[in-house]
Amino acid sequence: MKFTFINVVGMIFDSLLVIPEMVYTVKGMNKNYPGPKRNIILDYVFKYGCLILMFLPLGIGKFGFKSVASMLIYLFGNGILVLVYVIIFIINIKKDSFKVDLILLEIQTLVFILSGLILSHYLLVICALVYGTLHYKIMLENKDQYQDL
Fold first, then answer.
1. If you average pLDDT over residues 134-140, what whole number do you get?
2. Range of 74's domain?
3. What are the residues facing 64 on neighbouring strands?
């Protein structure tokens, strides 16, 4: 299976990852991290870079799978990860927990890495690794904002 210009499945996974953040924003639950603005700006650049690279084949020409098995791993692997992400978010929507936020970050990063590896989109893998590492660093710098620590 080949995608030409846009990976619609990647857009669906992106949408499901972004909906919880929109809920946080609408409810005014987004964290305002103090600290170096540079880190926060870079965090957003790499996060939205990952989201864009999930459905646009920037730097690789076309998306494609090497086999039917790789396509199934992509669909089911990401599908399960996104489902777990949404369930954890729904169950913990009212909690302000470092552990839950960390789990959500790890799942989101795994979706990006899995997609990048299976689609041979290594720019996505690099963006995911930088985003996950940087966001974790920002979380650690601001762990005093969490109720469970």
1. 89
2. 2-145
3. 2
